[in-house]
């Protein structure tokens, strides 16, 4: 029976802690994570940096205000996109009805405003 030999654990040099124990490194990683999170939320680089400054100043009220504004902006974009989808769905329904009725009307389909 052959046993796999496991590598021995390396001992860390004296004074070396686990990764991330360095407070400066930890703060830098948190800053990178915060910036990436803001970018993932649809913020520009400038907006992400602005939020990071608010985050680092521990001003929770202003952070919340910033996030509520960003959320409102995204919701408005979502509603605009939904209106466009509704228009497309309307045209699709009209074409499907024409197809079922065997009509090939060139008159056009009334346009719904977006």
Distance between the termini: 74 Å
**Helical fraction:** 55-70%
> Can you tell me the overall shape?
elongated
Mean pLDDT: 79
Global structural class: mainly alpha
Number of helices: 3
SSE arrangement, N to C = HHH
Major sheet summary line: none
What is the topological layout?
Layout: H1 23-40, H2 45-56, H3 60-101
Describe the structure.
The protein has 114 residues and is mainly α. It has a domain at 28-101. It contains 3 helices and no strands. The model is unreliable at 1-20 (pLDDT under 50).
Condensed summary:
The chain is mainly alpha-helical. It contains three helices and no strands. The relative contact order is 0.06.
Summary tags:
114 residues; 3 helices; 0% strand; mainly alpha; single chain
